[in-house]
């Protein structure tokens, strides 16, 4: 099945207008979910061939799953994150959703899960946004965060790819991920890695995030909001944060970001920043950058800005890099010219204030 309209079951108990207004006035991040979900079932032979069926929009609610299904034991799961934005004229738009659909297929392939056709992904997300449209906030910096995921749902305790799976999308009104535009201090995890060569680092799967939680807690104990991972086998080459990619801005306006080596996530925000910067005439280098180069660059002033980026975080200036026995101070400019320009272009295109000259936005309502 590729194209199919979604069956609809009405929610008998949607959130009241009063409750909704309260939530939308201060949505936070990931705290509240909407009235509906989109779901599609899959069954097949566990080797990639099978059928997607029962596409539906139904009331938000718990899943009932057998405790022996493989997602609970072997972590066969992948997910995505994208946002729907309400523009001034009331219209609603998605940012590059086809890129999320493609990445979900790549992640699924790595986790031996079935690949959802892109059209079905787009239809699920679009149908859910339309159904839950009253949940889309319109305040500055707000959006409806969409979380599509696929889980293995076959009851079987042997280790092999599941022959059944569920694709589901949940939605959550969202404001700033960090709750503040201030620079975010980062913890450099020396002890832990989130991914290794040949592993699942380039896939968006739950296991990568489970592996990041202990170092994340370590970071929080040191006053940091995110953890950074480096590759010990490559002179501590910078990889990425627990949930964001990283950019450095050099004094001459060059942007440097770690190359996609297979161990980091191919961020859609990262890709968009590269296109925006190149259009403006910046040189963008996708290459190895070590912690040592970072330290020397900040000390000498060669590195003038450092920021993190992702769907949830958008573009967030990075403050200090803190580790067990030292720190690298924040770069000279924490909300520098380049960071600020990129953020205003990116959020401007997303919210309709800046012309979408790349054709990134897809109208939903
Ligand atoms: N890296 C990791 C580990 C992430 O979880 C995310 C967030 O999705 C990103 C990078 C940024 O990716 P994107 O810009 O597609 O949201
Ligand atoms: C995103 O930016 O969409 C992420 O997935 C990051 C984090 C919330 C897991």
Helix content: 25-40%
Number of strands: 18
Distance between the termini: 25 Å
CATH fold name of the largest domain: D-amino Acid Aminotransferase, Chain A, domain 1
**Which oligomeric form is depicted?**
single chain
Descriptive tags:
365 residues; alpha+beta; D-amino Acid Aminotransferase, Chain A, domain 1; D-amino Acid Aminotransferase, Chain A, domain 2; 2 domains; 9-stranded mixed beta sheet; 18 strands; 26% helix; globular; binds pyridoxal-5'-phosphate; binds 2-OXO-4-methylpentanoic acid
Compact summary:
By secondary structure, the protein is α+β, with helices and mostly antiparallel strands. 26% of the residues lie in helices and 30% in strands.
How would you describe the overall organization of this protein?
It is a single chain. Strand 10 and strand 11 (237-241) form a beta hairpin. The protein is an alpha+beta fold and 365 residues long. It has helices at residues 17-25, 71-74, 97-110, 118-131, 206-221, 268-280, 291-300, 337-351, and strands at 7-8, 36-44, 50-59, 77-79, 82-86, 92-95, 143-152, 164-174, 184-188, 226-231, 237-241, 245-250, 255-258, 284-287, 303-310, 314-323, 326-328, 361-363. It has 2 domains: 3-174, Aminotransferase class 4, branched-chain amino acid transferase, N-terminal domain (D-amino Acid Aminotransferase, Chain A, domain 1, 2-Layer Sandwich); 184-351, D-amino Acid Aminotransferase, subunit A, domain 2 (D-amino Acid Aminotransferase, Chain A, domain 2), CATH 3.20.10. The strands form 2 sheets. Strands 1, 2, 3, 4, 5, 6, 7, 8 and 18 form a 9-stranded mixed β-sheet that branches. Strands 9, 10, 11, 12, 13, 14, 15, 16 and 17 form a 9-stranded mixed β-sheet that branches. It is globular, with a radius of gyration of 21 Å. 26% of the residues lie in helices and 30% in strands. The protein binds pyridoxal-5'-phosphate and 2-OXO-4-methylpentanoic acid. The site of 2-OXO-4-methylpentanoic acid (COI) has 5 residues, from loops.
């Amino acid at each position: 099945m590729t194209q199919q309209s979604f069956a609809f079951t009405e929610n008998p108990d949607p959130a009241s207008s009063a409750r909704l207004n309260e939530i939308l006035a201060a949505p936070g991040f990931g705290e509240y979910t909407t009235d509906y979900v989109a779901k599609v079932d899959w069954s097949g032979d566990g080797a990639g061939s099978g059928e997607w069926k029962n596409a539906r929009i139904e009331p938000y609610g718990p899943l009932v799953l057998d405790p022996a299904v493989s997602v609970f034991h072997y972590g066969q799961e992948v997910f995505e994150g994208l946002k729907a934005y309400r523009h001034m004229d009331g219209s609603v738009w998605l940012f590059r959703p086809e890129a999320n659909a493609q990445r979900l297929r790549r992640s699924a392939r790595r986790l031996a899960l079935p690949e959802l056709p892109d059209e079905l992904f787009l239809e699920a997300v679009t149908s859910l946004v339309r159904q839950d449209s009253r949940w889309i906030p319109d305040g500055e910096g707000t959006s409806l965060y969409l979380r599509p995921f696929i889980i293995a749902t076959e009851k079987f305790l042997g280790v092999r790819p599941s022959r059944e799976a569920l694709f589901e999308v949940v939605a959550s009104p969202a404001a700033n991920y960090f709750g503040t535009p201030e620079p975010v201090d980062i913890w450099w995890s020396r002890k832990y890695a989130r991914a290794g060569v040949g592993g699942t680092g380039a896939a968006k799967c739950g296991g990568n995030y489970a592996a990041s939680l202990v170092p994340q807690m370590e970071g929080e104990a040191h006053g940091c909001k995110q953890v950074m991972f480096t590759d010990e086998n490559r002179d501590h080459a910078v990889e990425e944060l627990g949930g964001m990619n990283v950019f450095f801005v050099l004094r001459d306006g060059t942007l440097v970001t770690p190359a996609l080596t297979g161990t980091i996530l191919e961020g859609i925000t990262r890709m968009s920043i590269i296109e925006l910067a190149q259009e403006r005439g910046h040189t963008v280098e996708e290459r190895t950058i070590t912690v040592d180069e970072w330290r020397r660059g900040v000390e000498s002033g060669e590195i003038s800005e450092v920021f993190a980026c992702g769907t949830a975080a958008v573009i967030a200036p990075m403050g200090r890099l803190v580790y067990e026995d030292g720190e690298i101070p924040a770069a000279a400019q924490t909300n520098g010219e380049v960071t600020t320009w990129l953020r205003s272009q990116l959020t401007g295109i997303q919210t309709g204030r800046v012309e979408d000259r790349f054709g990134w936005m897809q109208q939903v309502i």
